[in-house]
Amino acid sequence: MQANLRVRRYDPESAEQGSHLQDYQIEVPDHFTVLDALMKVREEDDPSLALRCSCRASICGSCAMTVNGRASLVCKTKMLDVAPDGQAVLVEPMNNQRVVKDLVVDLQFFWGKVRAVEPYLQPRGEEPEGEYIASNESMLNLLTPMGCIMCGACVSACTVLEVDKNFLGPAALAKAYRFVADPRDDETQQRLESLNESSGVWDCTRCYMCVDVCPKGVAPMDRIMDLRESIIEAGMTNTPGARHIESFARTVAHSGSLDEPMLAIDTWGRTNIIKLMDNAMLGFRTLRRGKLPLRSGPFHPRRPGADAVGRIFKRLSK
Amino acid sequence: MKYAFYPGCVSRGGTPELYDSTIAVANKLGIELEEIVGAACTGAGVLQEKGLKLGDTLNARTFAMAERMGLTTIMTICSTCQGVMAQANKRLLDNPDYLAEVNQELKPEGLEYTGRIVIKHLAWVLVEEIGLDTLKTFVTNPLEDMKIAPFYGCYILRPSNALGTDENPGRNEYLERIIETLSGEAVNFPGRLQCCGFPIMLINEKNSMEMVGKHTHNAKAAGADAMVTPCPLCHLNLDGQQPKAQAQRGEKIGLPILHLPQLVGMAMGLTPKELGLGRHIVSTKKLLSKASVRA
Ligand code: SF4
Ligand code: SF4
Ligand code: SF4
Ligand code: SF4
Ligand code: FES
Mutating which of A82, A95, A159, A211 best tests the B interface, going by the most B Cβ atoms within 10 A? Predict the structure, then answer.
């Protein structure tokens, strides 16, 4: 097949010019991956093209780039799948990270986040004679986060990192879960406390980007939700995030449907006067458009079936 | 065509114009909607954080109610409802033991979910069931010269294994197809498949506003006269919070945000009043005058 690659190039030595796109056309066999095609270009066409790879088998995690805007391991992405009719394929470096040259990004940012969650076992107490023993069952839920190959695809795709570089981000939070859930670790409480702070678990928008792009099924967002659950179970409920869940549940349990104004008031905290005043302005604007649901709080209408819904809540919420 | 209609909380709360315009458009197109009375909130992914089984049970209850109405397809008008229900359905159907366990919880109400429900957003109903060719025959007021930026909302796209976008990749371009069918021009901009930031609006307002500002700015910069979304939660943020996002960015944006049925209704000659186009925070006046030049 004919491979049409459109590659974003950037040379730090002529940084003032910014990046530009360069097209390459080459003949490749049908089984070629995007990485195979890029390497062929580098070997036969243009030795100046910078890219990073090693295993070529989705194991080492070094070849993540964006392909047609989607963060992917290029060694796991077939040319035929992204360009069945020989269309141009746009290959660019990962997002949210500083580009060093062409398709190579600086991984300092990625590793800095991972390091911040102290990604190593911290057992307290007496050192055992032999190994630290853990039962098979207690380790089962660690299998998914341990599959992470540190490729950075999720960090490239993360919606929040795009607007806020302080966010811990999907890979580091999935790694944090891996240690929180490890029965041999004794720093769970302290880990949860720091994950509960700003830039931690509550800043995720639940956009599923990281789940969709992760080549290893780590599903970082699901691990973040697990952490939120652990944080609430550990009794740390005085954050806007935790109040948001509780209030949502309370209003649905009461009436079967969501009470939007109440949700806002509870989430900000009922005594947060500044926030409430600030948003009263929006309230006025929506009111003028006849939109603000006025029957809120105790006046929130109970929908038919609310009793049945309340019963389900009573039985199933912890 | 008859559907079990699940309007969701927001179309009956913060965005009533979505509910009204859906009914108006359905009537015109001959889509028969029977509302699932007494169905609970889907949980919006928030209750699912509290307990997956709790959320799945509430949704199984809704599915069972639709089955009891003798219907097999639930129509949603919210990306979030669509995604949350599709995920719940997948979990229930993938695991018969789990379904049986959940059904135990529905027994007191005399309900049982047998697993026959399909959930489709209005956008999918328009493309997959009505068909774009048929839709075209209803267009009396083509949206020529109008540039519309599509904004999907996360949950109608992801996770792709629950939303059928793997088998049906076209679903990620349905809004473009619909806009073109109405004779408008679909504007491409970087944020079309991204998140509007609504879920953290109450938790990290600054980041949420940054997202609203970025997407509306980029769509406008790409030439859009308006943005269309199939998700009322996106609408709450992109329209309702746009003034705040503008203030944070220090820049006037003023991009009208339309619900999908409002856009379709405009092209079918429904009046701005019927479509609730006066009930937005960002005014739709300029847009309407552009559209009615040819009316
Ligand atoms: S789900 Fe959360 S962590 Fe994952 S990409 Fe979205 S915002 Fe980032
Ligand atoms: S979680 Fe997945 S996408 Fe993120 S770094 Fe690990 S393997 Fe890569
Ligand atoms: S998901 Fe959102 S819009 Fe849908 S029913 Fe629940 S709160 Fe309402
Ligand atoms: S775009 Fe925002 S509001 Fe819409 S579904 Fe995604 S997160 Fe929810
Ligand atoms: S080259 Fe190792 S993961 Fe792609």
Answer: A159
